[in-house]
Automatic annotation (TrEMBL):
InterPro entries listed in its UniProt record: Nucleoside_phosphorylase_sf
One MF annotation (Gene Ontology) recorded for this entry: catalytic activity
Gene3D superfamilies linked to this entry: Nucleoside phosphorylase domain
Name listed for the protein in its UniProt record: Phosphorylase
SUPFAM superfamilies in the cross-refs: Purine and uridine phosphorylases
A GO biological-process term: nucleoside metabolic process
Length: 200
């Protein structure tokens, strides 16, 4: 995993289960859960960075679902290099999505892992998605609910973001059920792998 200075880095996740092992290690002075969903994560991160001006980098550990057309396997770990927020209902012509500006953010990906394009919508996609619903989705590989909000706020503070995601499920009707079965073990594996670089 990429090296970083713990005294200048915020280590974060959406909820305590994604960072609990790291917190117990006592090796990360700036570790904070930011909440579930783009809006919650963005609001909490903005407040945190305003009060912690020493933060120069963000490492986000979490989980994601893979789109079936990406060919990405469950149980793998990916590191996004680009994040969008595209709503499935818009792609299916069931709603009109308010445009984002910019519509994507570049991340500092870790090339030791599969680099992917991440979609971070405001809702969990439960429809059957064997193929991209429209042309712009063809380049999307995985789905996470917080990364766009985190990246947008980080960009305002000119702070780079590196994300590591355990792939817990395929996006679709059974995605939430599979996530519930898989996230804990995969998150623990990811956190322990992250801790290895700090072993003495």
């Amino acid at each position: 995993m990429l090296p970083f200075n713990p005294n200048q880095t915020l280590v974060t996740g959406a909820f305590e289960g994604e960072v609990g092992i790291l917190r117990s290690s006592g090796k990360f002075p700036y570790l904070k859960v930011m909440g579930i969903g783009n809006l919650e994560a963005a609001v909490n991160l903005s407040e945190y960075l305003f009060h912690n001006i020493q933060i120069q980098q963000i490492v986000f550990l979490g989980s994601c679902g893979a789109y079936e057309w990406s060919g990405i396997s469950i149980n793998s770990v990916v590191s996004p290099n680009l994040v969008y927020t595209k709503e499935l209902s818009h792609a299916l012509n069931l709603s009109k999505q308010i445009p984002e500006s910019p519509d994507s953010f570049i991340l500092r990906s870790d090339k030791n892992f599969s680099e992917v394009n991440c979609n971070a919508p405001t809702t969990i996609s439960l429809a059957e998605l064997k193929n991209p619903p429209e042309e712009s989705w063809k380049s999307l590989d995985v789905e996470n609910l917080e990364l766009f909000g985190i990246s947008k706020v980080a960009a305002k503070f000119s702070i780079p973001v590196t994300a590591y995601f355990a792939v817990t499920n395929l996006v679709g009707p059974n995605g939430s059920v599979d996530w519930a079965k898989n996230w804990k073990n995969l998150s623990h594996d990811l956190q322990n792998q992250f801790l290895q670089q700090f072993s003495t």
